[in-house]
Amino acid sequence: MKEKIYVHVADDHKILIEGIIAVINTDKDIEIEGYSLTGKEVIDWSKEKTADILILDINMPIFDGIDVLKFFQSNKTDQKVIILSSYDDVNLVKQMLNLGAKGFLSKNSAGEHIVKAIKAVAAGEQYFSDDIQNNLFKLYTGQKVAEGERPESTIAHSLTERELEVLKLIAKENSTSEISGILNISTNTVETYRKSLLKKTKVKNAVGLAMYAVKNNII
Amino acid sequence: MKEKIYVHVADDHKILIEGIIAVINTDKDIEIEGYSLTGKEVIDWSKEKTADILILDINMPIFDGIDVLKFFQSNKTDQKVIILSSYDDVNLVKQMLNLGAKGFLSKNSAGEHIVKAIKAVAAGEQYFSDDIQNNLFKLYTGQKVAEGERPESTIAHSLTERELEVLKLIAKENSTSEISGILNISTNTVETYRKSLLKKTKVKNAVGLAMYAVKNNII
DNA sequence: TTTGATATCACCGAAAACCGTTAGATGAAA
DNA sequence: TTTCATCTAACGGTTTTCGGTGATATCAAA
Q1: Which tens digit of pLDDT belongs to each residue from B158-185?
Q2: Which top CATH class is B152-215?
Q3: Which residue on chain A is closest to B11 by alpha carbon?
Q4: How many CB pairs under 8 A join A and B?
Q5: How far is the CA of B193 from the C1' of C26 (A)?
Q6: Which of A51, A189, B35, B193 lies 20 to 30 Å from A108, alpha-carbon distance?
Q7: Which fold has domain B5-141?
């Protein structure tokens, strides 16, 4: 016979929380312990209470999901966390995993995956929704993207790999010197990429680059 | 005896759609007709089918909610629409109303409001979630707002009208001097707004502001 | 083997962004 | 009436971005 799995949900959108609760309630083995609307609430909650699984939105005001994970890590809080994100960026997934997350759900994935993810992570496994799994697989195996899936992304492919890396970092608010630190290259080189990006994408400035990245699903 | 109310849901996050469906299904009078994951799907859907109520996320890829409303307006499609938004900007609400929306739900509001909104709009009324109602009252009538519970999260990102204007122009790649020209104010003033925006949104630079605008559908 | 694409780096100057602080004018709210 | 939010503006200084114009190394393809 099974023990119930207790779940805490954290997201700044109450509607989404209630939706997740509704979906979870369809399963007999899982119970909602409570919810939080901000990262601060999550941290406060974790000091007193606990749950088997924490479903955590990365995009929250005040303290975001990353802050919460960092808090857990530095306080050695052993909390199994499933990340909920609207973006399926592989680098983000990697960062989350390094911060101790056990599962990663894209908001684009169907609700049924929540239940699967909860049960998998509660059982000590990892769980990723399909789209993220694909991306991870491609990244680690160096596989090329199937030709039929992404029609528009070929336009963005006039950008080189390195340019794309720089572009992503620009879109994440990094300055030239920060990027140079992250990629271990000279600031001069980063500036060269910036100029190249501006020329290729025909936008005026870093904001234009960020918007380009958004529109072309690069982020 | 009552007729059932048929609802179509459009949002790019499937989890949120399923959540909304789960919430709606608790009510006997309301039935889900179907859902769409992009604005394009909504437009295609509207050409063939119909529902009493369309719940429409403004923040969708390819065609966003505004595009859908514009399509309805230019095609004289008589579709009652309830807008679902993560941002409660009053200007946005005004724009939506002018485009024919009948209700406006902030994603910060509780799920129960969905049912209320559907019934109100189906009955020919308008509906706004509490936080938006407060803002509207302030703007139009200057009436005193009831002292209900208001979480800090909504107050956190309350940008002024002028700040929103500047933010939009920044997100459109305009420089400070260009914005000063467009708004007919001094460059110094524009810089003051930039600083204020950076402080309020807690982002590092103009790129962060642009991303904030995207995420909160201010653009 | 030459060409082309990519990744790397450098220097200069101009423009823009960012930081901190201050402050007047206005109109609404307490 | 006084306080508060908002809009407006200014000043001085630092950092970052942008534009232009180079160069070197590597690797793969023609």
Answers
A1: 788 889 889 989 998 999 999 999 889 9
A2: mainly alpha
A3: A108
A4: 123
A5: 18
A6: A51
A7: Rossmann fold (3.40.50)
